[in-house]
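Sanity check

After download, print the first record. It should look like this:
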Amino acid sequence: MRSAWIAATVALVGVGALAVADEPARDDRGWTAVEGGGVAIGLADVLSGGGPYRAPDLNIPLIGSGAAAADLDELVVGPTLLFYYSASCPHCQEVAPEVARLAQRLDGQVAVIGIASGSNSGSDVRAFENEYDLKFPNWRDFTRKYASANEIASTPTVFLVRPTEEGFETLAEYRPFPGGFGVVAEIQARALLGEDPFGAFEEGHYAGTQACGACHVHEYSSWGLTHHSTAYWTLYEREEAENPECIACHVVGFGKPSGFELEQYRSAVADVGCEACHGPAGPHAGERKPVATARDACVTCHDADHSIQFTVDKGLPHIDHFRAAPMSPEAFRAAREDVVQGRAARPLLAFPDGANLGSKACAECHSEQTASWKKSPHAGALKTLKGKGSHKDVACVRCHAVKKIDDPATPKDFHAGGVGCESCHGPGEQHVAAKGGTENIVGLGASCPECVIEAICTRCHTPEQDNDWNLKEALPKVGH
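Expected structure tokens:
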């Protein structure tokens, strides 16, 4: 499952961008500066339908779910959405509720016709209709000519077509129709028919991150380079995907109408998508929310219990909405794979400023904790290097001792005593000078979630260096 998900999610977000040699300019948020702003660069394509497309071949005989027969070209009498599917296809099952809802939204403006593939029986189609409460007519491509004549290679596929004086034309097509694209199809249908395209957005209704990405191409691609884009999957890896306390901060709209529901791992609102910060439908429905509202959303999850010394100013550069814009496709894919594979840096491990003083300074006030630490594997970490003959290799010492200076060049630039207190709690200079306090040191007490502690541990306990390391097994060994 993991390998399949990686392959799918790496391909999902990529955008063909231009390669640049120089470091891009930054704005006051720390985001990549893009000429013209770069916001919603895909809007024109969405509004135009992305065509032109070849004319559809609708001279196709069909059989209805009730065994009636008809020719498709006689069924299409006005603007029509053709939903081609297979009842057994999991992707079709996934989007069926969206298509059903789209049919209701477009009622009176655009007809919807379901066309099941030739491998489906009449009972298959009837069961599919009932399961997803499809109110539009469904037919079977029993000759398979519809799929063949229109070069359909996958399910589900959706065409928006209409009659012309010469026959028929295709206004928009989706090969395949992805989950979360119902609102995009409605935007296109409205625009192509001269209606207000943004009437497709509903106040309080989540559209899904993929829908945002249809117009906001740079923003969507750049989101794919953030840890937000894999937030839900991390819960599966930690066997917490059914834990409501965790889920709420790893998806969009959990517990709210049209928001994330338990066990819907393929949902368009899985992961921390656009609407987690910008609200349902972003700024496109209802009263436009101020920028401060999006900033305020950060601390609803990045609070004192779940993030280390977090501030919005620290976090903002790491959700750069335009990072992907100047990247080559090759650079983008490599960066995306790093995120998906868990190799990407976690820059929000922002310890307080100041110098590391060494564990002896901590012992003056925390004698009991220091005594416990001395019995832990961390205390003897530096000695293990001597046994391997690598105690003079700075690259190794970095994870076996506490550094004295920011950029250590020799083993003398590290404190003796192995992996000391400040390796996990951050520099103690401010804490010692103030003779205590919680705002000047990182506390990892009993209330701290394992995922926060893990972010610290895995700076050194990487798959390359410690492949058998397990957080739940390791934590009791360093308890103090």
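If your output differs, re-run the checksum step. Summary of this record's structure: Residues 1-10, 13-21 have pLDDT under 50 and may be disordered.
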